[in-house]
Amino acid sequence: MADSHTLLIEVTRLRVGMYIHLDLGWMDHPFSLNSFKISSQEQIDTIRSLGLEHIRYSPDKSEPDPSTHPAAPGSVEPSAATAEMPDMAAKNQRRERLASQRASLQICERQFAHAAQTYKQVMESVYAQPGVSREQSETLIRGFVGEILGEQDACIRLLSEKAGEKSSLHSVNVTIISLLLGKASGLGEQDLLDLGMGALLHDIGKIDLPDRLRWNDGHFMAAERQIYQEHVAYGVDLARKMSLSNGAILVIGQHHEHADGSGYPLHISAERMSLPAKVISLVNHYDNLCNPCNPALAVTPHEALAFMFAQKKKLFHSATLSLFVRMMGVYPPGSVVQLTDERFALVVSVNSAQPLKPSVVVHDPHVPPDEALVIDLEDEPQVGIRRSLKPLQLPKAALDYISPRKRMCYFFERARETAAEGAR
Question: So where are the chain's domains?
Fold first, then answer.
C-alpha cells in the first residue's frame, strides 16, 4: 500500500529526488508548478532562498534516499543495548509529528495574515487608486485559485484567534470558504476568479456608511436598516470604478439576495442569481452567525450549520446548501464535541471526503496542552463523534485545555489523500 501522506521537513534537509509541495502563491516562487520532484542542487538553493523554514514533501513520490543502504552481508547488527529504545522512538515520533503540525498551522496563519494585510491595503487605496486596489486583489485571488485548483484536494482548517482582526476577518473567511465551495460546485477557473474577487470585496461599500451603521447588530430602526442595505449599491459603484469583471460585480450586487426572493436589494429568487452569488449568499450568512459583530450572539459552527439547514433552508439554493454541509462536515472546524469514548475534543480540520471523521484536538490531562497532537479520526476507526456541545457545557479542565475559539478564522490546507488515491 502506497504511503500517500505528505510530511513537513526542514528546508536544510532537502535533497535531489524529493517530491515537494510549495505552499505559496503562484507569484511567490519562480517555478512553473507548486508540486514537483527536485532535480538539481540549483532548485534546492532557490527553494532555500524563499525564506521558508519547513516544506511539505511526498515520501511515496520521492526517490529513495541514497545515503540509506541495507546492511552488507556479514555486518554485525547493533546490540539491544545500543539500539534505540521503543519508548524513545515513540517520543521522537511524537515530537516530529507535533513539529510538523505546528509548522503546517504556521503556514496557514502566515497566508491568512498576508490576505488580511492585502485586504486592508485595498480598502485604504480603493478611492485614490482603484486600479492598484484591483491589481492587489487579483494577485491575491489568483494565488488562492491556483492553490485550490491544484492536483491535491484542500480541506478547511481552523486557525488560532490571533490570525485575524475584525476589520478583515469576515472578508477573508468568506473568500476562502466561498472558493472551496465554488470548486465543489463545479465552477471553472474564470468563475472562481469572479467569485473570489466578489467575495473579498463584497462589503467594500460599507466604507461609505456612517461608522455606527457598518455592522448590523439586528437592532436597527427601519431607517437605519435602509441606510445599511445601501452598502450593496455603494459596493457595486466602487467595483465599477475598479473595473472589475461583470461576474465579480454580480457577486457583490447579489451577496444579500436569497433563493426565496426575501433578500435585498432587488428581491430576486434563485433562478435569477448567478451560481457564484448563490455560493457567497450562503457563506456570508454562515460566517455572520459564527462571527457576529456582537460576540455574545455567536453560535458554534455546528449550531450555525444546523440552524441554516433546519430553519433557514428556504433562503439558500438547495444543491449549494447540500454541498456546503458535505464540505464543512456535520461538525465544522471550531465545533466542540464529545467522542464516543467520552473524551472532549475541538474539531480543527475537515476533509469533505470523510465529513464524519474530522481531525480533532482531544483533551488529555496526561499531555500538556501545548503538546497536544491533532488526531485524525479517520485513523481511529473505533472512535467517532457522539454529540456536539456548547463550550460552556465543557468541564472547566477540558474548556481550559482545548480553548474553543470565540472567533472563527478559517484557511485551507492540503487534504490527506486516501491510500487508494495515492496508489494511482
Answer: 1-65, 109-324+408-422
CB-based burial label for 294 (10 Å; 0-12, 13-18, 19+): exposed
In this structure, the dihedral spanned by the alpha carbons of residues 231, 234, 235 and 239, taken in order and rounded to 10 degrees, is 180
Burial of 132 (0-12, 13-18, 19+ CB in 10 A): middle
Distance between CA 108 and CA 164 in Å, rounded?
12
- What pLDDT sits at residue 167? 77
Residues of the chain with pLDDT under 50: 1-4, 71-83, 418-424
Q: Which residues contact 45 (CB under 8 A, 6 or more apart)?
A: none
Q: Residues near 68 by Cβ (< 8 Å), separated by ≥ 6? A: none
- CA gap 342, 338 in Å, rounded: 6
- How confident is the model at residue 219, as a pLDDT? 76
Distance CA 141, CA 408 (A): 21
- Segment (H or E) for 174: helix 166-184
Query: What cell was used for 357?
Result: 471523521
CATH number for the domain running over 109-324+408-422: 1.10.3210.10
Report the C-alpha dihedral over residues 165, 168, 173, 176, rounded to 10 degrees.
-130
The three-state secondary structure class of 157 is strand
* Calpha distance 53→9 (Å, rounded): 8
Strand partners, 359: 349, 376
168: Cβ contacts below 8 Å, ≥ 6 apart: 115, 116, 117, 119, 120
**With b meaning 16 or more CB within 10 Å and e meaning fewer, what string describes 364-375?**
beeeeeeebebb
Burial 14-35 (b: 16+ CB within 10 A, else e): beeebbbbbbbbbeebeeeebb
Quick one: pLDDT at residue 68? 55
Of the candidates 100, 54, 111, 50, the one whose C-alpha atom is nearest the C-alpha of residue 412 is 111
Q: How distant, in Å, are the alpha carbons of 26, 171, 288 from that of 349?
A: 24, 20, 20
